[in-house]
Write a structure and sequence with these properties.
By secondary structure, the chain is an alpha/beta fold. The chain has helices spanning 2-10, 13-20, 27-34, 82-93, 107-113, 128-141, 159-164, 176-181, 183-191, 198-201, 214-221, 228-238, 250-258, 280-291, 306-315, 324-356; strands spanning 39-41, 56-58, 61-63, 67-69, 97-99, 118-122, 145-149, 242-247, 263-267, 296-300, 319-322, 369-371. It is globular, with a radius of gyration of 20 Å. It starts with a helix and ends in a 5-residue tail after the last strand.
C-alpha cells in the first residue's frame, strides 16, 4: 500500500479516485480484500522446503507463478509508459498479461511489446461487427486467450467519479488545484491525446457515432440483452481458450462451461459494479467442488499479499488475477514500479509457502486452509 500512497501524490485527484474507488458505499470494494482475513493457513511443520516451486500453467501456457495481470482500462491514465510497460514487466516475471478493450494501446502494439502469453478482454457490443473485428485482430496478433466481461449491462454507480468530476466532463472546483499541480498529465491528455481508447478508435466504428466521444460510444454499445447464446457465438468465432469474467455462482460457471468457456474469472469488477456482491475468494470453494476438473478457475479481486494468493489456490483456484495491485505501482514508478511491486508479491508468496511447509503451489489444497467461522 506504500505504492498507493505514492500514486495518490503523483496523480491528479480525479484520476487517483477513479483508480481507487468503487461503487456506491464501496462495501464490496473493501470486502474483496477483507474477506481473506476470514481464512487461516494451516502449516505443515518439518516439511522439506529447501526448494520452492511456483511454476504452473494457465490457458495451456507455462507461467512462472500462478498470478496474471487483469485487464484494466486506460493504463496511460496512470503513467505515460502505459500498457507496454506492464507487458514488459509481465514478460520479466513470467506472467499472463490481460489487455482491456478500453486500453490506451492497440491490440497489435501490446502484442509486440513483450513475449509473454496475452489475454484480450472483450465486450459483446450491440454492433457485433466491432466485437468480431477485435477477435480477428487478436487471432492475427497471436493472443493466447479471449476474455468476455459479463457484469456490465450498465456502468456501476461510482460516486467518487461524480464527486471529483472524472467522468462528468465538468470541472469540479475542489479538483482544480490538483489539475494545476499535474500540468504534465494535462499535456499528455489534451495535447498529445495519449488517453484515447485506441482499440475502439481503430475498429470499424459506425459513422453515425463519429460525433460522440469514444466513452459515450462505448456506453451506448453496452447490450442489456446479452445471454449465454452470445457466449456460444463468441466461442464459435474464437476457437481457443475462452474466459468468462464476472461470474460468481456455480450455476453461472456451469452455464459458462456449457456455452464454450474454458475458464472463469470469479470477479465483481473490483467492487466497481454491483454493490453487495460476494468477495471472489468466498466463491472459490463451491465452484471448485463442482467444476474444478472442467474449468480453470481464476480469483480476481482484492489480492494484496502473497498469503492471499496461497489462500485462493488452497481453496481451489488455478490462478489469481490482480488489477490495482499492479496499477498503484505503475502510477508510482512506471515499468520499474510494476516490476518492484510484482517482485515483492512473488517474494511474499515464496516465503509464505516455506513458512507453511509446502514446497510447491501444485500441492496447495483444502488441507492447508480453513474458514475461521468453521474451525470448531
Amino acid at each position: 500500500m506504500d505504492f498507493r500512497r505514492i500514486a495518490r501524490r503523483r496523480l491528479p485527484s480525479p484520476v487517483f479516485h477513479y483508480l481507487d474507488g468503487g461503487a456506491d458505499d464501496e462495501w464490496t470494494l473493501k470486502r474483496n480484500t477483507k474477506a481473506f482475513d476470514d481464512y487461516e493457513i494451516l502449516p505443515a511443520q518439518l516439511s522439506d522446503v529447501s526448494n520452492i516451486h511456483l511454476q504452473s500453467t494457465l490457458f495451456g501456457e507455462k507461467i512462472d507463478w500462478p498470478v496474471m495481470l487483469s485487464p484494466t482500462g486506460a493504463s496511460r491514465l496512470f503513467h505515460a509508459s502505459g500498457e507496454p510497460a506492464v507487458v514488459r514487466a509481465a514478460e520479466k516475471l513470467g506472467m499472463v498479461y490481460g489487455l482491456s478493450t478500453l486500453a490506451t494501446t492497440t491490440i497489435e502494439d501490446a502484442a509486440a511489446a513483450g513475449n509473454c502469453p496475452k489475454m484480450y478482454q472483450v465486450y459483446v457490443l450491440k454492433d457485433r461487427g466491432v466485437t468480431a473485428d477485435m477477435v480477428a485482430r487478436c487471432k492475427t496478433s497471436g493472443y493466447t486467450a479471449l476474455c468476455l466481461t459479463v457484469d456490465t449491462p450498465v456502468p456501476g454507480n461510482r460516486e467518487r467519479d461524480a464527486v471529483y468530476g472524472f467522468s462528468s466532463g465538468r470541472l469540479r472546483l475542489r479538483s482544480l488545484p490538483s489539475w494545476i499541480r499535474h500540468a504534465d498529465w494535462l499535456y499528455r491528455a489534451l495535447i498529445r491525446k495519449d488517453l484515447e481508447m485506441v482499440n475502439l478508435a481503430t475498429s470499424d466504428r459506425p459513422s453515425q457515432f463519429d460525433d460522440m466521444s469514444l466513452l459515450d460510444y462505448f456506453n451506448s454499445q453496452l447490450d442489456r440483452s446479452l445471454t449465454w447464446k452470445d457466449v456460444e457465438w463468441l466461442a464459435s468465432i474464437w476457437d481457443g481458450p475462452l474466459v468468462v469474467k464476472g461470474v460468481q455462482t456455480v450455476a453461472d460457471c456451469r452455464q459458462a462451461m456449457n456455452a464454450g468457456a474454458t475458464a472463469v474469472m470469479l470477479s465483481n469488477h473490483g467492487g466497481r459494479q454491483l454493490e453487495g456482491a460476494p468477495a471472489p475468494v468466498d466463491c472459490i470453494a463451491d465452484v471448485a467442488d463442482a467444476l474444478h476438473d472442467k474449468l480453470e478457475i481464476i480469483c480476481d479481486g482484492g489480492i494484496r499479499r502473497g498469503t492471499h494468493i496461497i489462500k485462493a489456490l488452497a481453496l481451489g483456484a488455478n490462478a489469481c488475477s490482480i488489477g490495482r495491485a499492479y496499477l498503484y505501482p505503475l502510477a508510482a514508478g512506471g515499468e520499474q514500479g510494476v516490476i518492484r511491486g510484482l517482485t515483492l508479491l512473488r517474494t511474499e508468496l515464496e516465503r509464505s509457502l516455506a513458512l507453511m511447509g509446502c514446497d510447491s503451489v501444485a500441492k496447495l489444497g483444502t488441507g492447508f486452509v480453513r474458514h475461521r467461522g468453521r474451525s470448531h
